[in-house]
Amino acid sequence: MDQIRHFQDEWLIRWAIKLPSVSLAWIAELKRNQLPFLSQVLVDAGLASPEWVYELYERHWRIPAWEPSADAVDPAVLELIPAKVCCRHFLLPFRRTEGTIDIAMANPLDPCALDDIVAYARLKPVVHFSLPGRLYGVIHEVFRPAVSTV
């Protein structure tokens, strides 16, 4: 029997099945292929726009989007959370303010990632959603060469 795992953004299934060309059978096949993020699959397949996914996070979780850009990352904030933690959880600190740290996350609902952020940064995280593919590229750009050894 094929092992079926969960997407890290499993909650999106409820909305994805309302899109044309998306079925529960198709989603089950994606799970068997062990694709980690439904949001990225929908965007890559042209079935949903990034804006559609951003709006769902904003509307249902009150989590704003952040479009990943290496130029928008404060280099000083990168020292607060190790590259290996950022790669493991698909997250990127990008700004620090009084008592808080802004974090872009592919899964901003991940309690283990949030615990790691607090443990390392010792600041209250302000989470933002970013599409995993775009976020992954910026993580590797800002942390090189550290991520090559992770």
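The above is record 1. Record 2 follows with the same two-line structure.
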Amino acid sequence: MTRPAIRLFAALILFFLMLPSGVTKASRPPSPLGPLTDLDSSSLCILFKTEPDKSVRNEIDRRKLISENDWSMIANQDVKVGMSLCALLAEKGPPVLIVRTHEPEADLSTDQHRDMIYVYGGDGVSLYYMIDKGLVVHISGGIQ
């Protein structure tokens, strides 16, 4: 990305963070009361972060939500452009905020996450992961 494009992206993030109608607080997934097959994909992926159980991994693999390459990045506690949203959630857990840049009525339980920003923060640092069509397409962040 060129420097002006990065500045534009950062300005857009700040703009959308200030719009209350476009911001949704992320919530932790419900504890599974039934079989893992009943969980939506996002909750299943977050569950792997909180409970990295073999049965959770097997269900993720059965649904083909995370590639072998993404599993190796998760093992190295790494997130890179091109990895799946599920891999991001399995590595980072639930985000602090989810910013919808389009489709304000989108259902977060589906796999059709388009033009969304997942915000993570802590220890004075914020990280922003832009998601398009279920993939991480851009990562930015900085000190608060």
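The longest strand covers residues 135-143.
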